[in-house]
From TrEMBL:
Encoding gene per record: ylxP
Highest taxon above the source species: Bacteria
Classification via InterPro entries: DUF503, TT1725-like_sf
Name of the featured protein: DUF503 domain-containing protein
Source taxonomy: Bacteria, Bacillati, Bacillota, Bacilli, Bacillales
Organism, scientific name: Thalassobacillus devorans
Family annotation (Pfam families): DUF503
Length: 92
């Protein structure tokens, strides 16, 4: 089973693409290392304060996959420099 989450976020303190990429790099690297998920910026690569992040996990257990994605979302929420606006979770 493949579970994906598409997360629209705002990075209010970013004043340049370099600052935005710094925040995203720190978050995506830690997500990959701590939760063993695939992570990528999906949209708004050219905007300073807005992004859409995609997270994907594969599991044979539906409950485990949902738990993992929820933990990853909570982890994103723990960063004060990024605000999660809208999240779409989908089974593939």
């Amino acid at each position: 089973m493949i579970l994906s989450a598409e997360i629209e976020c705002f990075i209010y303190d970013a004043q340049s693409l370099k600052e935005k990429r710094s925040v995203l790099k720190r978050i995506t690297t830690r997500l990959q290392n701590e939760f063993n998920v695939a992570v990528s910026e999906l949209e708004h690569q050219d905007l300073w304060q807005r992004t859409v992040i995609g997270i994907v996990t594969i599991s044979s257990d539906r409950v485990q996959a949902e738990r993992l994605i929820q933990q990853a979302l909570s982890f994103i929420d723990s960063f004060p420099e990024i605000e999660r606006a809208e999240t779409t979770i989908e089974w593939c």
